TrEMBL record:
Residues 101-216 form the Exocyst complex component Sec10 N-terminal domain. PANTHER family: EXOCYST COMPLEX COMPONENT 5, SEC10. It comes from Olea europaea subsp. europaea. GO terms for biological process: exocytosis; Golgi to plasma membrane transport. Residues 1-22, 63-86 are annotated as: Disordered. This is Exocyst complex component Sec10-like. Residues 222-830 form the Exocyst complex component Sec10-like alpha-helical bundle domain.
Length: 840
C-alpha cells in the first residue's frame, strides 16, 4: 500500500479497470515486483482484504451513529431498546456478508502465487545455468592467470639473481678501487713523509731548509700532525734497530740518520709547541675561546696535551702567591693574633666557597676550550688540593710538642685539636663540592685524607695529652680559688664550732660535669677522624679511660681531703680530753676547747657526707654518660665493651675504698662525741635517785636527751647522702657501736629501782631513735636492753623469772645485776649462782 500526495494510502497491487459491485469483479493482479525490496506479509494481506472489509465497517459505524442513545455492552455489541427488534435484524441479514468475496479473492491470489512461483523457479534455473557457465569461464581464466604469474615470478627471480651478481661484481670492483685509492693515498702520504723526513734528516739542528708547510701559521695543525707521525716512525725504527742483533753497516747508518731526524723533529716539536702555547696565552688574555680551543686541539697531539693542560692550570691567578697570602690573612687573622676555632671555621668557609666559585668558573672555560676537559679539571683540582690548601693548612695546623706543650694561656693542646677538627671537617666539605663540580677520575677523597695523615696517625696521643692538661689546669684553678678563699676569710680566730673542713676543697658535681663535657668533645673528634669501626672503638676506649682516671682521681682526692678533716678533728679532740685532777679554771677552758673540737668533728662529718653524696652523683653521671654515648661506639665482639665496663668498675673501686674508710671515721667521730656527751652530762644520781618519797622522774636523762639530739642533728646529713646498701650498712654499724657504747657507759653506774625506771626510759628513747635506721638487728638489741633493764626494777626473788623467755641475755644480765644497789646487801651473788649453774 502506497501513500498519495494528499496523505491517503493507496494499494500497490494492480486491480482490473471495471468497478462491479460483485466480489468476482475485484480480482487482484500480483506482480513479482511486489515481492522485492522491503516485502511485508502483513502489508500483502492488508492489501488483499482492505477493499472488501472497509464497506462493512462503514455500515457498522453508521448504525452506531444512528443509535447514539444506546448503550455499548462489554462484549462490543450495541444494546438496543428492544431485544425483539435486535433478534429480527440478526435473522434478516447474514452476520459476515463479505466472506464469499474474500474466499474468491484468496483462491485467485493463491493461483497467481503458484504461477509466480513457477515463473520464479524457471528464472532461478536459468540463472543457475548462466552462473555455472560464468563460473567455469572464470575458473579457466584464473588458471591461465596463475600460470602467467608463476612465469613472471620465475622471470623476476632470474632478474634478481642477475642484479645481485652484477651488484656483487660492482662491490668488488668498488672495493678494489677504494683499496687502490687508499693505497695510492698512503703511497702519496708516504712519499710526502719520506720527503719531509729527509728534510729533517739533512743536518743536525738545521731547520731552515724545511718545506713551507712547517713555517706556515695557517697550516700549523697539519704540520703538527705530520711532525708527530715522523717522530713516531723514527723513534720506532730506532727502537727496532737497537734491539736487533745484526750489526750490518747499512742498518747502523740508517739508525744514525734517523737519530738526526729524531733530534731535529724534537727540536721542531718543541719550537712549535712553544709557539702554540704563546698563541694560547695571548688568546687567553683576550678571552678568545675559539682561538684557545684551536690551539688546545693542536697541542693535544703533543704528549696528549699534558703540557698545555699543566701550562693553563699553572697560570691561573688562584695559585698566585699574593692570593695564598690573602688566604692566610682571611683564616688566621692579623699576624701575632690568637685565632679561635670559630673564626677559623668562618674563614675556611669563606675561603673554600671562593675556591669553589673560582673552580666552577674555570670549569666553564675548560669545557669550551679543551678537547679532554675531565683531564684538565683533574689537574686543576689536584693543584688546589696539593698546593693552595696544604700551604694554608701548614700554617694553621702547627703540631705542638707533647714534651713541652703550649700553656693553657696560649690555648693549650685543645686549641690544636679544635683547629684540626675544624680544618678537617671544612676540607672534607670542600672535597665533596669539588667532586660535584667535576674532577675527572681524580680520587679527591683519598687526596684530602692524605693532607691529614701526619696529624691523624698520632691524633689519639694528643687527645689524651690534652685531657690530662685540661685536668691539671682545672685542679690548679680550684686550688688557687680555695687558697684565695682561705686567705680572704682567715683560719685564725674562728668562732666556736667553726669547721676545719672549710679550708679544704670540696668535691663539685659541676667539675665532674665539665670532665664529661671535655670527654664528649673528644669523642666527637674520634667520630670525625676514625673511619674504621675498630679504630673508632679503640680511640673511644682510650678517651673514655682518661675520663675514668680523671673522675676517679678527683673524687678520691676529694674524699681523702674530707677524711683529713675527720682526722684533724679527731686529733683536736684528743688534745682536749679532760683530766681527773685540774683546777676549775683549767677545766672550764678545756671544756670550752672540747666543745670547739666537737663542733669541728660535727662539721667534718657533714663535710664528708656531702663529699660521699657528690661522689655518688659523679659516678652516676659517668655511668649515664657511658650508657648513652660510649657503649654504642664500642664493639661487643672484640671485647672492648666488656673491657670498658671492667675499667669503669676498677676506677671507682679506689674511691669506694676511701669512702669506706671515711665512713668508719665518721662512726668513730660520732661515737667519740656520744661518749663525751655521756661522760659530761650523765650524773650518778640519774640512776640512783634518793628515796625521799618524791615521785620518780619518768623523763629521759639529760645525757640521753643530749645524745639523741646530737645524733638526730648529725645523722641528718647521712640520711641525705647515703643510699641503698651503703646507707643500711652504715646505720647498722653505727647502731651496733651505739649499743656497745651505751652498755659500757652504764656499767659505770649503780642502779636502784627508781634509777632502773629512769634507765628503761632512756633505753626507750634510744630505741625509738634507732628505729629510724631500719635495721632489724639493731632494733632487736635495744629491745633486749629494755628487757635487761628490768633487773634493776624487780625484787631479788623475781630475777630468775626475767630470763625464762630470753636466755640469750643472761651473760649481759649477770654484769647488770652486779650494778644493783642491793647486790651485796641482798647477797644476790650467792642467790644467783645456783640459778646460773642450774640453767647451764
Amino acid at each position: 500500500m502506497n501513500e498519495s500526495k494528499d496523505g491517503r494510502k493507496t494499494n500497490r497491487f494492480s486491480k482490473p479497470a471495471s468497478k462491479s459491485v460483485s466480489t468476482d469483479s475485484y480480482p487482484l493482479v500480483l506482480d513479482i515486483e511486489d515481492f522485492k525490496g522491503n516485502f511485508s506479509f502483513d502489508a500483502l494481506f492488508g492489501n488483499l482484504v482492505n477493499e472488501l472489509l472497509p464497506s462493512h465497517l462503514e455500515e457498522e459505524t453508521d448504525a452506531l451513529e444512528g443509535h447514539g442513545g444506546n448503550d455499548v455492552m462489554p462484549n462490543g455489541h450495541l444494546r438496543t431498546p428492544s431485544d425483539t427488534g435486535k433478534s429480527a435484524l440478526e435473522l434478516s441479514s447474514p452476520l459476515f456478508p463479505e466472506v464469499d468475496a474474500l474466499l474468491l479473492l484468496f483462491k485467485n491470489s493463491c493461483t497467481q502465487l503458484i504461477d509466480l512461483r513457477k515463473e520464479v523457479d524457471g528464472k532461478l534455473s536459468n540463472l543457475k545455468k548462466e552462473v555455472a557457465a560464468q563460473d567455469s569461464r572464470h575458473r579457466k581464466t584464473l588458471t591461465e592467470l596463475e600460470k602467467g604469474v608463476d612465469g613472471l615470478f620465475t622471470s623476476f627471480a632470474r632478474l634478481d639473481s642477475r642484479i645481485s651478481s652484477v651488484g656483487q661484481t660492482a662491490a668488488k670492483i668498488g672495493d678494489h678501487l677504494q683499496s687502490a685509492d687508499a693505497q695510492r693515498q698512503t703511497a702519496s702520504q708516504t712519499i710526502d713523509l719520506i720527503k719531509y723526513l729527509m728534510e729533517f734528516n739533512s743536518s743536525p739542528g738545521d731547520l731552515m731548509e724545511l718545506s713551507p708547510l712547517f713555517s706556515d701559521d695557517s697550516r700549523v695543525a697539519e704540520a703538527a700532525s705530520i711532525a708527530q707521525k715522523l717522530r713516531s716512525f723514527a723513534e720506532e725504527d730506532i727502537g727496532r734497530q737497537s734491539m736487533a742483533v745484526s750489526s750490518v753497516v747499512g742498518n747502523a747508518t740508517a739508525s744514525r740518520g734517523l737519530e738526526v731526524a729524531v733530534a731535529n723533529l724534537q727540536e721542531y716539536c718543541n719550537e712549535l709547541e712553544n709557539r702554540l702555547l704563546a698563541r694560547f696565552d695571548a688568546a687567553s688574555q683576550r678571552r678568545e675561546l675559539s682561538t684557545m680551543a684551536e690551539c688546545a686541539k693542536i697541542l693535544s697531539q703533543f704528549n696528549r696535551g699534558t703540557s698545555a693542560m699543566q701550562h693553563y692550570v699553572g697560570l691561573r691567578p688562584m695559585f698566585d702567591l699574593e692570593v695564598m697570602n690573602a688566604d692566610t690573612r682571611l683564616v688566621l687573622g692579623d699576624p701575632g693574633s690568637q685565632p679561635s676555632p670559630s673564626n677559623v671555621a668562618s674563614g675556611l668557609s669563606s675561603l673554600y666557597k671562593e675556591i669553589i666559585e673560582t673552580v666552577r668558573k674555570e670549569a666553564a672555560t675548560i669545557m669550551a676550550v679543551f678537547p679532554s676537559p675531565d683531564d684538565v679539571m683533574s689537574i686543576l683540582v689536584q693543584r688546589v688540593l696539593e698546593d693552595r690548601v696544604p700551604k694554608l693548612l701548614d700554617k694553621l695546623l702547627m703540631k705542638p710538642s707533647l714534651v713541652n706543650p703550649p700553656h693553657m694561656e696560649e690555648g693549650g693542646l685543645i686549641l690544636y685539636l679544635r683547629m684540626l677538627a675544624v680544618a678537617y671537617e671544612k676540607t672534607q666539605e670542600l672535597a665533596k663540592e669539588l667532586r660535584g663540580v667535576g674532577c675527572g677520575d681524580l680520587d679527591v677523597e683519598g687526596l684530602t685524607e692524605s693532607l691529614f695523615h701526619a696529624h691523624k696517625d698520632i691524633y689519639i696521643e694528643y687527645e689524651q695529652a690534652s685531657l690530662r692538661q685540661l685536668y691539671k689546669s682545672k685542679m690548679e684553678e680550684l686550688r688557687a680559688e680555695t687558697q684565695q678563699s682561705n686567705e680572704s676569710t682567715g683560719t685564725i680566730g674562728r668562732s666556736k664550732g667553726a669547721s676545719i673542713a672549710s679550708s679544704h676543697q670540696q668535691i663539685s658535681v659541676t667539675v665532674v660535669t665539665e670532665f664529661v663535657r671535655w670527654n664528649e668533645e673528644a669523642i666527637s673528634r674520634c667520630n670525625l677522624f676514625s673511619s674504621q669501626p675498630a679504630t673508632l672503638a679503640a680511640n673511644v676506649r682510650a678517651v673514655f679511660t682518661c675520663l675514668l682516671d680523671q673522675v676517679s682521681l678527683y673524687i678520691t682526692e676529694g674524699l681523702e681531703r674530707a677524711r683529713d678533716s675527720l682526722t684533724e678533728a679527731a686529733a683536736l679532740r684528743e688534745r682536749f680530753v679532760l683530766g681527773t685532777s685540774m683546777s676549775r679554771r683549767v677545766a672550764a677552758a678545756a671544756a670550752s676547747a672540747a666543745e670547739a673540737a666537737a663542733a669541728a668533728g660535727e662539721s667534718s662529718f657533714r663535710s664528708f657526707m656531702v663529699a660521699v653524696q657528690r661522689c655518688g652523683s659523679s659516678v652516676a653521671i659517668v655511668q649515664q654518660y657511658f650508657a648513652n654515648s660510649i657503649s654504642r661506639l664500642l664493639l661487643p665482639l672484640d671485647g672492648s665493651h666488656a673491657a670498658a665496663c671492667e675499667e669503669m668498675a676498677s676506677a671507682m673501686s679506689s674511691a669506694e675504698g676511701v669512702a669506706y674508710k671515711g665512713l668508719q671515721q665518721c662512726i668513730e667521730t660520732v661515737m667519740a662525741e656520744v661518749e663525751r656527751l655521756l661522760s659530761a652530762e650523765q650524773k650518778a644520781t640519774d640512776y640512783r635517785s634518793p628515796d625521799d618519797g618524791i615521785a620518780p622522774d619518768h623523763r629521759p636523762t639529760n645525757a640521753c636527751t643530749r645524745v639523741v639530739a646530737y645524733l638526730s642533728r648529725v645523722l641528718e646529713a647521712a640520711f641525705t647522702a647515703l643510699e641503698g646498701l651503703n646507707k643500711q650498712a652504715f646505720l647498722t654499724e653505727l647502731g651496733n657501736r651505739l649499743h656497745k657504747g651505751l652498755l659500757n657507759h652504764w656499767q659505770k653506774f649503780t642502779f636502784n629501782p627508781s634509777g632502773g625506771l629512769r634507765l628503761k626510759r632512756d633505753i626507750t628513747e634510744y630505741g625509738e631513735f634507732v628505729r629510724s635506721f631500719n635495721a632489724p638487728s639493731v632494733d632487736e638489741k635495744f629491745e633486749l636492753l629494755g628487757i635487761m633493764a628490768n633487773v634493776f626494777i624487780v625484787a631479788p626473788e623475781s630475777l630468775s623469772t626475767l630470763f625464762e623467755g630470753t636466755p640469750s641475755i643472761r651473760k649481759d644480765a649477770q654484769t647488770f645485776i652486779q650494778l644493783r644497789e642491793d647486790y651485796k646487801s641482798a647477797k644476790l651473788a650467792a642467790r644467783l649462782s645456783s640459778l646460773w649453774a642450774s640453767s647451764s
